[in-house]
Design goal:
The protein has 6 helices and no strands. The chain is mainly α. The termini are far apart. The relative contact order is 0.18. InterPro entries: DUF1375 (IPR010780).
């Protein structure tokens, strides 16, 4: 896969609202996994997990196998922030809008 195809796949997943990482970030469920949450949600769905909303605060994407590489990449890029969150380090960061 060339560089442009990888970026196109990532952007497509994000724009369709199917990216597990984006879904878990939007859910912001207390007690839900934070580190590699999107990747873990995809893996949970691929293993036929019964209750993704209760565990992660978000529904798994319909095509979790297709979303898994993009979520793994995005989770890796966001790893410093998710580790800080998991360790209880307040970064005082707020979203747009």
């Amino acid at each position: 896969m060339n560089k442009h195809a990888g970026w196109l796949l990532l952007l497509t997943c994000l724009h369709l609202g199917g990216c597990a990482t984006a879904r878990t970030l939007d859910a912001n469920k207390p007690g839900a996994p934070v580190v590699y949450a999107g990747t873990r949600l995809d893996w949970y769905a691929l293993q036929d997990g019964c209750c993704p909303v209760e565990r992660f605060g978000a529904e798994a994407p319909r095509y979790a196998g297709v979303d898994l590489p993009a979520s793994a990449l995005l989770d890796t890029l966001l790893l410093p922030l998710s580790l800080a969150k998991a360790l209880g380090i307040g970064l005082q960061v707020s979203g747009g809008g």
